[in-house]
Batch of 2 targets.
Target 1
Amino acid sequence: VPTPIIQQGAEVFGRLGWQSIPWDQPIPLAAGGTVILVMLCVIGWVVVKGYVPYLWREWITSVDHKRIGVMYTMLGVVMLFRGFIDAAMMRSQQAVAFQAPGFLPPQHYDQIFTAHGTIMIFFAAMPMMIGLMNFVIPLQLGIRDVAFPTLNSTSFWLTATGALLVNISLVVGEFAQTGWVAYPPLSELRYSPGVGVDYYIWSLLISGVGTLMTGINLVTTILKMRAPGMTYTRMPMYTWTALAANLLIVAAFPVLTATLAMLALDRYLGFHFFTDTAGGNMMMYVNLFWAWGHPEVYILVLPAFGIFSEIFSTFSSKPLFGYRSMVMATMAICLISFTVWLHHFFTMGAGADVNAVFGIATSLIAVATGVKIYNWIFTMYGGSVRFDTPMLWALGFMVTFVIGGVTGVLLAVPPADFALHNSLFLVAHFHNVIIGGVLFAGFAGITFWFPKAFGFRLHEGWGKATFWLGLAGFYVVFMPLYMAGLLGMTRRLQHYEVASWRPWVIAASLGIIVMAAGGACQVIQLVVSIRRRHQLRDATGDPWDGRSLEWATSSPPPAFNFAVLPQVHGTEPYWQIKRRAIETQQLAEQPDYQDIALPRNSPTGFITAFFCTLTGFALVWHIWWLMGVGLLAAYVVFVWFAWRDVHEKIVPAQVVERLDRERRRARADWLQRHGAEAGAEAAA
Amino acid sequence: MTATTVAHEGDPYKVGHHDRPAQQPAATGHGDAGPASTNVIVAYGFWIYLLSDIVMFSCFFAAHAVLQSATAQGPAGRDLFDANRVAIETACLLASSFTCGMSAVATQLRSRLWTELMLLLTGGLGLVFLLLAGSEFTGLIHQGAGPDRSAFLSSFFALVGCHGLHVTAGLLWLGTMMAQVLVKGFRPDILRRLLCFNLFWHALDIIWVALFTLVYLIGLAP
């Protein structure tokens, strides 16, 4: 039995040594080597091209919510590819591991499924959703930045720290072999003596703090900083869902922090929160974990609902149907999501009554979600629907998510859950809702707001190819897994002996190839779009005939977002501005420009995250002096930032006027063309 | 911070050039008149942070409630807790809350001397509290009643320790604020930070009251 570290002697580099690198395992070594090589190539290219000052000035130290949002989303997309590679390895292992050991030894396979889950939830889905919220919410609110811009930058870099620690574990040491939920007693020191669980704990604790700060930031932003006239019932639907998601972050992420801190105390200082000795209670971990974990599902999917609400309305050229019922449904889900956590472990044995309560609460969420589905259908009904790529993702989502919802309601019935618990049916279910809900929303949102962020559209043809291959790939992978689950196949099997499962497992592996083709199309789409950016240019700032305020400014928006804060009179403020311009055939009169104060850039977030990476790494490897250095440096950075005297820089009124005049010229051109078209239509 | 400091001065962004009256109410952030003032935003954000911190504490409280009787044949609360020490700890912390409030009054009156003095007293009382809590911890560990003895003691050490860590962070913050008041005076941003510090310190006091009741009083009850 390994002893807790308080009883161990101290080495200069703690547990870290030459043997920490898995020299005998070619697969992680090659993968890690490739990642390091690619990173070195990118860094080398950036240095040689002389982009370092630009990157430092415009991105790394930027506190602009738009830049931070873009970086968040990019982190999410990159980690999505990393997580996808893990998925492909798992599927191909199972394809060959029928009555055979396959190519991945168990301890490596276990790390892969743990890393896959951890990465996909924390470092792919979360950054994508948070990145889109970061970018869009201040624009939709008609304001200039979030409430705490430097804190926002720190949040992002702390999330990046977590992602970095997980990736370091690929080469230095190992990752957890416990599954992404890290249940004790398996995750306790006695059964997982290596550094894997420690990497898991510290990467999630550090990035979790970042997420919590984002939650605080966006809640404050939405509740206290809206354009004049934007009352609660005039907020765009995406802003409402973002509010709900961030309220959930504020209420749920501290639970994760506390739970992981308890696990860390068990592992590091010999505490007995969850051990199987001295009165520890491991089911308490499971309860606490899901008290965070179930709201987390809605932290991810509520913004996704918001993105689709915007898309359904925009591409149906109609206001969102049932706005108020949509708000009610969102807030209902926000509340109920805290009352269902036990459905993740009906098999704990809490008794029929307790299980029934949680089963019914779970089914209630489906009612609120059903309200949303019908609202989206009625939004399309009678509209002139345009089938651009974002709309395709939205339609694909609706069908896929309903299937996932139905299997979810099935799993919410405790007796059925007893049969299906921990089976591939469950795996298929949650991939069905998370891929069909969150990931599709991520792709839809990226395609939808890409022109706003970069000033040009993504290529439509490659986007559609990505959609169809992604959708088909999803069905080919996960429908067979439902069947395998019904046939009794449990999750996380490194090899298996049952012949009847085999065809379904093979089919799922083929689906991965289709999905990979979709991923390739996504990359090609990006490359093609960048090369043809001049043809795809979004001159007006309103490429989709949008309805909310983010489309009122130019693409990409100036640092200050809006030359003057827009005045809001209804739920679709930009649509009203546009209608008025078309009716009167002129733009609103030129405003009186003023100097604008913007938050100054700050490297605080980056430096803090740098020292957090050191501290996290030191904690994983028990390098105590380095931990001390990291914490001391964190305090020094805090004081250094607090000592700053000038917080804002001024954009002079002339600059604001010059930039806004360009925007107005583009709008005037558009209005002229639009007027001509309208005239031709009337004549016809 | 964003450019919202002047939101109460009429029409800062010239948004009302169409149809808004020249005189408008101060922005409350409820959407009637645009973004709230920086003072409101900062204090509001800090309240949200405090709520999240209380959620975190509530997890440790819940864990303690679950593990309270899991003593693993070891000592229970009534065998270990020293009522006198806890009473002094509580008195220190409550008094520090009072002096912290007095520092806020002094800040309102823009008295640098009294603000510093009251903050110093607050910090001193906080330090005494920490030393008492530290001596309790070391005493328990010497008796063989450390956190590795039983799940009950694990949850006790974690809960009290978490509060102690917050007090330690608060002391670091307090020292920084004293230096800032000394060097920079009562600038608007310093005033906002003092307000947040006050909120933080009082919140720690509230948590201690819960801790005193739920851990020590109930633990000492026969």
Target 2
Amino acid sequence: LPDWELIVRTHGPMAFDTAWRLLGNAADAEEVVQDALLDAFRLHAQRTVNNWGGLLRHLAVRRAIDRLRTRTRVQPLACEPVAAESDQPEAAAIERELAERLRWAISNLPDREAGVLSLRYFGGMTNAEIATTLGITAGAVGVALHKARAKLKELLTAEAMTRRRTRE
Amino acid sequence: MKTEHESSRDPADDLLDRALQAALAQPVPQDVRERVIETAFAWRQDSTVLCPPQVGRSSLPARTMSGHSRAARTVRAALSRFCGRRRLGLAGVIAFVAAVAAVLWLSHPNESWSQVADALRKKPWCLAKYTTPNGEFHEAWISFTSDVSAQRDGNFTRFSDHRLNVAYQYDSKERTLTRSLEPEDGGKKGADRWFEKVFQQITGGAEKLDVATPGVEVVEEKQGLVAKYGRTWRSYELAIRPVDAHNAASKPVERLTFLVDPETRQERLPRYLMLSEPSMNPPSIEMALSYPETGPSDIYDLGVPRDAKLVDLVPANDLRRILSKIKSAAERFEKHLALNVSSDAGSPWFVGTLFVLWQRGTSYRSVFGLVDAASAPPKTPPSDADQRRWWKSRWTELFHVANQVCDGSTIWSNEARPVDWHIEQIKPHPLTSSRQAWPQPKWTSRPVRHPWPADSPPLFVAYPYNLVNFLALNWEPVLDLHPADGPVNTVKVILRSGVPDSSSGEERYWIDTQRSYMVVRHESVTRDAPKAPPVEAINLSEVVETADRSPNGIWYPTRIRHIHVIEPTGKKQTIETVTRHYLNFDVRLSDDLFKPIDRPGEPLE
């Protein structure tokens, strides 16, 4: 069996970063990655894994998406402070809110599309790496990514319009 | 000045990209990240959390002192659990076969069938289909690479992610989607190995199948060429029967016939699987197996409406962590020799029945020390006597009756008893009999379905298998982090049976978070639901009164009070006993101890 410590040291941080970007909340990211590591630890004793980096990010993404779906709609206040010494607090708040809206939108995507998009943008994986990790073809990854982007655009735009109408 | 590309760009693209950038720009909390990583090492260093033993997890061996035992589970039951707990069906068998094929082919590639593995990697899904005589269509999907499976039959649709141990089941009649954790074993392990053997041999082109395995008896096997569907196939036919020590003959025989295309040597994949068993409905089915490129990515892909009511039975993280701690404690408990003494409540500590246990991991030997009716009564020990030493000495005055031996995979039980033993058993402690009248050991065996290192006294009270693996029993957990009752420093877990009828019940556990998550109190309750308000009855209460720590720092009970409520003659009767447990961890346990051979006079060293 590969060394567990090596696996965690090598790939754990990236799994955390992926979950953090997807969740934007330290406590949630911590729990999600702990659970993903538990899942991975169980697998570590059970089977051969060729790509621990991909698998850990995949597990973290799956857990993070589940977590996102349990949240109520947009929760900008749950977001961590961006930068303590920001000289543009208003702009930072807007960016945080935008990120939260994105997370809400991702939580409304089907599993595969949400997973592929998260691995691509937040996990920094290529289409080929995602394909190998998920056991699907690179073409299927491309299709899922395209669909995910289209739906996100639709969701974000519709949400923005609703907000605008509410303000008006 | 904008470029042509920029000027034609969809504003929605900009919005999305800005949102992505905003999420990516948030600085990662380094301190939390480091803490997560270090915590992961702590688990490993503890050899704790969710680290399954290398053997398959399955059943609780006998609760030796209490006389409870779980019946050996059959392969059929295991298959049924695999397909879903609410409905036992053939789809589970289909899924199971396909899953095992997938796991086998992908996880054990070697030169002899590497071509098969290569072919399958290009075909990451297996699909099994059949139609019942009344026209009901069944299908089962298995992903070769993602370790997920799905089934659709009748009113039920299921989707399981085995890597995450999460299972979804949709009942179209109720329009309810249930999400739950799969049991730790998923019911798969024992049967996994069996199917693994079968498929290995089929894919290897074996002329004769050797599929003997604990728990499954091969009644008949045939191999040959058969003509079907307009062509010739190589067939592998097996008649199997789950082994049950008590009534093997009454168990149904299941027949499995795999049809493999002998022409396509590079793809020695089963294309058809026939299953028959008289008690099935229908008694025989023929499944077509195919290997498509894609399959469902979630349960909604199988047609489940997204607005279906979701019942989420996945335990909260808090509960998972607590259960993993309990499991960890059980698995880290060291080898030991336990002198367990059962006394009637109110009796002094030296009046009781001695039950000796040698335990190493999931292997153990248990022996009763019985009082010979013809022997002189023991001298009353002095008030300052060392209880452990006194019982160790007393052992030499008793006659020894082997109870059970387990080597981790097989349990041997000594069934030999005198004719009137059932009467002696209900008399007050100590258990007394005639050394001369006691028959020679008569060993029967059964496979260990669920090895559990805390399955004997006193650990079965402290770290109960049923609590950690409640999903196998279809119980719903409720966690109370601040219980209003029970000992201090405890959290309370209630397991409720899922059927709110007169037979519903609860198992209540108070878990001491300061003492390696040992259960310090347990109640087994039945509720007469039709009455208003429902009438509760506590049928069993176990309270840990004193405890000690092992060298590894794992707590274990040293005195437990058990209160059973029984109704042997229609009238409730309460039996209160106290068990005392003297454990010695400085022991050498030879492998021979865990073999089914009688070892009269085994010294307590």
